[in-house]
Design goal:
This protein is of the alpha/beta class. It folds into two domains: 145 residues, Periplasmic binding protein-like II (D-Maltodextrin-Binding Protein, domain 2, 3-Layer(aba) Sandwich); 87 residues, D-Maltodextrin-Binding Protein, domain 2, CATH 3.40.190.10. The strands form four sheets. A five-stranded mixed β-sheet has the order 5-1-6-15-7. A five-stranded mixed β-sheet has the order 11-10-12-9-13. A three-stranded antiparallel β-sheet has the order 2-3-4. Helix 2 packs across helix 8. The longest helix has 15 residues. The relative contact order is 0.19. The N terminus is likely disordered.
Amino acid sequence: MSERLLKGIAALASAFALAGCGENEPEAETAPAAGGGEELVLVVSGEAPPYSYIDDDGSIVGLEVDIAKAAAAALGRTLVTRKLEFEDLLPALRDGLADMAASGLTITEGRRKTVDFTDSYATEGGAFLYRTGEPMPTMIRAEQLRMGTVDSMTLDFYLTRHGIDAIRYRSCAAAIQDVLDGKIDALFYDSCSLKADAEKFGGRLSVSKLETREPYGIAVRKGCPELMAALNAAIAERVSK
């Protein structure tokens, strides 16, 4: 385990005690569930609008948070939402520091070896964020570009499989700033999130066509069947609307 990841886990542990499906609880809460029972911990990167992101008032909001709130309420538990770097989300589940992780997480068989996944609540794809007025990046052209991605995302692995040695960032925000500053030519990230981010910059940034399509789900730490059932029920209710 890397020193950086150890520091991240230590920081998370100091912020709240060991969480679990019926174990110790963290301290702070974002939304009380009906019944006010034991706490459930959701960790997100806060950089995946509209699924989970930081609102103007500093709170963590989005579809994934709404699903987790509904599941917690159904179980009579209290939802606690914490922000972590994307690469630390699944390790937090594996190490028992959280119950759920989300941020546009792609459901893969490799990830299923260490965590469980809910049913898919959305199908999204990877796209390129680039400076408006410059040629639109494509996977065919990506080898000739200074390409950025977020470390440990499936889109990071997708670039690697295509022989593209991208610059890896811990946060999407830092990569977007480097696109704006001309330090990289494009960022490969979730299309839906990129569109929301691009709107903030008054037309200075554009989003390419989709390059991939992937099913998103909420990751759940192993051994939590009741939580899984509650999350899937909440997803089914929202998909049916």
